[in-house]
Write a structure and sequence with these properties.
Strand order of the largest sheet: 1-2
Oligomer: single chain
Number of domains: 2
Number of strands: 2
Distance between the termini: 25 Å
Radius of gyration: 21 Å
Largest sheet: 2 strands, parallel
Strand content: 5-15%
Mean pLDDT: 83
Order of helices and strands: HHHEHEH
Helix content: 40-55%
């Protein structure tokens, strides 16, 4: 069976949905990198330190996301192996706009009927990241 997800798909989705949060730090890091290379020694050292801190603040959450979402068994649902679903049971999947698990649940438990509940309300949830996710 072919993999259902591409390598680093979750972290790539995070970047795509939140590109507006990534653009500013990327611009700041570019300016700091230029200052580090072009500024006099003492100012260049400060810019280099700023570049290091900005890169760490930007990349560490993405590295943690890779560990949590892309290298775990979260999306394979292997952690549900051995679960017995009653024939009368209905699976319920609740999400807020970007559903990556309903299909996997159906493949894991094909005989169980399922209901997907999306509690996203555009009038109440104004986060642009969720709108980006829903658009995909």
């Amino acid at each position: 069976m072919e993999p259902l997800r591409k390598p680093l798909q979750s972290v790539w989705n995070i970047v795509l949905f939140n590109w507006h949060f990534c653009a500013l730090p990327a611009g700041i890091m570019l300016l700091l990198a230029l200052a580090w290379r072009l500024a006099p020694d003492s100012l260049g050292d400060v810019a280099g330190l700023g570049l290091l801190l900005a890169a760490a603040a930007t990349l560490l959450p993405l590295i943690v996301s890779v560990m949590v979402y892309d290298t775990s068994k979260l999306h394979t649902l292997d952690w549900l192996d051995g679960w017995q679903i009653s024939p009368e049971a209905t699976l319920v999947n609740i999400h807020s706009g970007f559903d990556e698990t309903s299909g996997a649940l159906h493949r894991k438990f094909p005989a169980a009927p399922s209901t997907v509940l999306d509690f996203y309300d555009p009038a109440r949830h104004a986060e642009i990241s969720i709108r980006h996710g829903r658009a995909r």
